[in-house]
């Protein structure tokens, strides 16, 4: 039996045939037949240039239908897909290329030139270009290849995707997601959220992130429905598209921005059946206001790179404000104390999860993988939470210092290392503060060297040159000293308390 998840897609696409699969922002339509044709050509081309099953294919390109078909094509020919945030700078890309050892790198012409030294050092087959408008070497060179590429034979535990998630030490970790992980999650969500052939999903998420790459799109593929594929989130564009859609998945920032428009009301969304929010905490007041404005209750769910979706509020039944719902089919969730003992209802502790959707491990980091799993195979999420008597899960904080801003993960240590390297900076502490639009705002507290004067804007500008834009602090505050405990560790909880009203 072939366990390649693309086999599921292939079968569904064969059944759907000429049905519309994807409508691009410019109005261009791709059918399910086109999906098979394009992915077949891309897969044949990649194989011809030397990409073999199991090889990593690194991709840093702007969102486009062609970029999404590339993801499916890599799966079809048995490779490991490695999506990279388009905001990553050269120094960040160097780490990913050296660590993941991809055999080919798909990028823009501009980045192919800018990263030429990195590519020649770390990428065996070099780079192939793909631009936001669907032009480039991938599209042009694949035209002459056959579309009848067979679906590569894969086992359940073979790696399909490697997604990097930042580490508390500043070194990102590659979560290895297998075909079993993907199919388990996709089937559970398609069933839970009741996707059918009649659905039209409004897609405004980036596709270098699990939420946009596969959590949302796999529901469409398995239900043979349609996707309205926007290049990015633009409030006015989304508002114009909503009347022709039935479902939308987004981050809290999407919903706060939609509600800033007077035209966003009940009549606008009368054809919608489902709004899903994830990737960042949804403020309860945002959810309540959304319900008042539209008559819809946003379905909040909980997931992470290492496992895709863990829990979800129900499609039918009580969607509890502030809760991320119950464990989905195939996933177990428990709350434990510091010693691993299971806690009772309403007791706050560490969230641990288990099931076939949990990643295989971290790429080339067996010790880190072992550290994050218990002996009986429960994964330690690093989140703090509680469950009520009806098994609804509430995330109340994070054991780690992760900041989630606009749906993206930022680990403070990575930003602190950059700030601390600035002339005149003695030390820094980076925290996340509650923000109505972004969920959390990256905020830097900086201590300067004696007799040095560094302006806040200088720090922000320095970070912009070294980090992806979402990691750059929204504000920089100068302190004379950082609060520390008896062991000399910075007490970030005290900083969060002192600055809690900064954005309100």
Explain what you see.
The chain is an alpha/beta fold and 504 residues long. The chain has a nine-stranded mixed β-sheet, with helices on both faces. Strands 4-3-5-6 form a four-stranded parallel β-sheet. A four-stranded antiparallel β-sheet has the order 16-17-19-20, with no helix packed on it. The protein starts with a helix and ends in a 6-residue tail after the last helix. 31% of the residues lie in helices and 25% in strands. Helix 1 (5-16) crosses helix 2 (32-48), helix 2 packs across helix 3 (65-76) and helix 4 (90-100) packs parallel to helix 6. The model has no long low-confidence stretch (mean pLDDT 93).
Share of helix, binned: 25-40%
N→C terminal distance: 56 Å
Radius of gyration: 23 Å
Number of helical runs? 17
CATH topology of the domain at 32-154: Rossmann fold
Strand percentage, roughly? 25-35%
What is the overall pLDDT average? Answer: 93
**CATH architectural type of the domain at 32-154:** 3-Layer(aba) Sandwich
Overall morphology: globular
Name the strands of the widest sheet in spatial order. Answer: 2-1-10-9-11-12-13-14-15
Given as residue ranges, the uncertain stretches (5+ residues, pLDDT < 50) are none
- Which CATH top level class of the domain at 32-154 fits? Alpha Beta
| Oligomerization state | single chain
Number of strands: 25
Structural category is: alpha/beta
**Tell me about the biggest sheet?**
9 strands, mixed
Provide tags for this entry:
4-stranded parallel β-sheet, 9-stranded mixed β-sheet, alpha/beta, Rossmann fold, GMP Synthetase, Chain A, domain 3, 31% helix, globular, 504 residues, 17 helices
């Amino acid at each position: 039996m072939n366990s390649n998840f693309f086999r599921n897609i292939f079968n569904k696409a064969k059944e759907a045939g000429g049905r519309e699969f994807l409508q691009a922002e410019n109005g261009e339509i791709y059918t399910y037949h086109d999906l098979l044709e394009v992915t077949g050509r891309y897969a044949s081309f990649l194989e011809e240039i030397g990409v073999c099953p199991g090889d990593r294919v690194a991709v840093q390109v702007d969102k486009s239908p062609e970029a999404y078909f590339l993801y499916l094509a890599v799966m079809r020919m048995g490779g490991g897909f490695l999506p990279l945030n388009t905001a990553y700078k050269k120094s960040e890309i160097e780490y990913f290329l050296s660590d993941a050892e991809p055999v080919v790198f798909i990028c823009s012409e501009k980045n192919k030139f800018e990263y030429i030294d990195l590519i020649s050092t770390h990428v065996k087959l070099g780079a192939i270009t793909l631009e936001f408008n669907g032009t480039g070497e991938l599209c042009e060179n694949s035209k002459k290849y056959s579309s009848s590429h067979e679906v590569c034979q894969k086992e359940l535990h073979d790696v399909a995707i490697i997604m990097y998630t930042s580490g508390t030490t500043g070194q990102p970790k590659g979560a290895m997601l297998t075909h079993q992980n993907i199919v388990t999650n996709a089937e559970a969500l398609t069933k839970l959220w009741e996707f059918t052939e009649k659905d039209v999903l409004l897609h405004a998420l980036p596709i270098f992130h699990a939420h946009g790459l596969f959590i949302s799109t796999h529901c469409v593929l398995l239900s043979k429905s349609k996707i309205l594929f926007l290049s990015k989130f633009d409030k006015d564009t989304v508002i114009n598209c909503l009347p022709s859609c039935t479902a939308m998945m987004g981050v809290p920032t999407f919903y706060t921005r939609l509600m800033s428009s007077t035209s966003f009301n009940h009549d606008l969304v009368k054809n919608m059946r489902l709004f899903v929010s994830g990737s960042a905490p949804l403020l309860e007041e945002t959810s309540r206001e959304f319900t008042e404005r539209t008559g819809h209750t946003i379905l909040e769910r909980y997931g992470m790179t290492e496992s895709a979706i863990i829990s979800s509020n129900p499609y039918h039944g009580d969607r509890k404000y502030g809760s991320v719902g119950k464990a989905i089919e195939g996933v177990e969730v428990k709350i434990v104390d510091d010693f691993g003992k299971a806690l009772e209802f309403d007791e706050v502790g560490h969230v641990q999860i288990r099931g076939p959707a949990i990643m295989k491990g971290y790429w080339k980091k067996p010790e880190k993988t072992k550290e994050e799993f218990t002996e009986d195979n429960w994964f330690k999420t690093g989140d703090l939470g509680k469950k009520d008597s009806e098994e609804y899960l509430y995330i109340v904080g994070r054991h780690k210092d992760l900041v989630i801003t606009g749906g993206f993960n930022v680990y403070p240590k990575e930003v602190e290392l950059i700030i601390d390297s600035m002339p005149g900076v003695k030390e820094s502490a980076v925290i996340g503060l509650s923000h109505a639009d972004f969920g959390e705002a990256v905020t830097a507290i900086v201590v300067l060297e004696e007799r040095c004067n560094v302006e806040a804007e200088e720090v922000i500008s320095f970070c912009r040159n070294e980090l992806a834009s979402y990691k750059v602090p929204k504000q920089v505050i100068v302190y004379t000293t950082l609060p520390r405990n008896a062991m000399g560790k910075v007490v970030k909880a005290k900083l969060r308390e002192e600055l809690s009203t900064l954005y309100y």
